[in-house]
Amino acid sequence: MSLEPLSDLLIEPVVRSALAEDLGRAGDITSQACVDPEARLKVRFAVRQDGVIAGLDCARLAMAAMDPALRFSAQRRDGDRVEAGEVLARVEGNARAILAAERVALNLLGRLSGIATLTHAYVDAVAGTRAKIVDTRKTTPGLRMLEKYAVRCGGGVNHRFGLDDAILIKDNHVAAAGGVGRALERARAAAGHLVQIEVEVDGLDQLDEALAGQPDVVMLDNFSLEDMAEAVRRTAGRVRLEASGGVNLATVRAIAETGVDVI
């Protein structure tokens, strides 16, 4: 399935906010002082190391916000794997506008491409297993939509976007509710028919209690590999299992090979 780009309507407010932060009260006073107002530039965006690209539309919109007549020609697409030295885009337009927009364009393009590149490394590491690499809500405030898009560019899958997407009963909810079973009982009574329920467990005993409550997903929090494999055996496909905690590029393959569905 091809990657669906984000709408400009979603990206533009983030880009404009970043430009407003950078331009401050008086704009780019360096370019105003040093560069003729009619001067033009031809520039290119090129990569310095191998990776996966995300955020080209952020760069395009940053440039266009400063010079609507500017020409931005993308040479690659988000989600493409690229090698060091490849040109991603060529830009021609007012010099002052390009110089004022370049840092915001590069900040967003670089950050999102970094997320896409690292995500792709995880996806590669679990290739051939059933496990999907999934993101979290531990995102940069204000950039969640873009960062989760970058995960998709890298071949990963999005978890919930916010607290209102699904019921996810974490350890603190369990403690406050008085136990896994009680939390699930209350969640099931409150949830709408389209709302999925996930519960976090920290041991096999809690897993058994959770399975009795029939959640849609169980998160195995910091389980050993042996306990993960046992959880897969006990669950026998009745619910999706999600592994969390202790995940890095050195451990992710072994986690995937336990048979969990999501990491």
Q: By CATH's scheme, which homologous superfamily of the largest domain applies?
A: Quinolinate phosphoribosyl transferase, N-terminal domain
Strand content: 15-25%
Tell me about the biggest sheet?
Answer: 4 strands, parallel
The CATH topology of the largest domain comes to Aldehyde Oxidoreductase, domain 3
What is the C-level CATH assignment of the largest domain?
Alpha Beta
What count of helical segments does DSSP give?
Answer: 10
The tally of domains stands at 2
Protein structure class: alpha/beta
**Strand count:** 9
User: Helicity, in percent?
Assistant: 40-55%
Overall residue-averaged pLDDT value: 97
**N-C termini distance:** 21 Å
Overall geometry:
elongated
Order of helices and strands: HHEEHEEEHHEHHEHEHEH
Order of strands across the biggest sheet? 6-7-8-9
Radius of gyration: 23 Å
Structure summarized in a few sentences:
The protein has helices spanning 8-23, 29-34, 56-66, 95-125, 144-153, 171-177, 180-190, 204-212, 225-235, 252-256; strands at 40-46, 51-52, 71-74, 81-82, 87-94, 167-169, 197-201, 217-221, 240-244. It is an alpha/beta fold and 263 residues long. The chain has 2 domains: 8-111, Quinolinate phosphoribosyl transferase, N-terminal domain (Aldehyde Oxidoreductase, domain 3), CATH 3.90.1170; 166-256, TIM Barrel (Alpha-Beta Barrel), CATH 3.20.20.
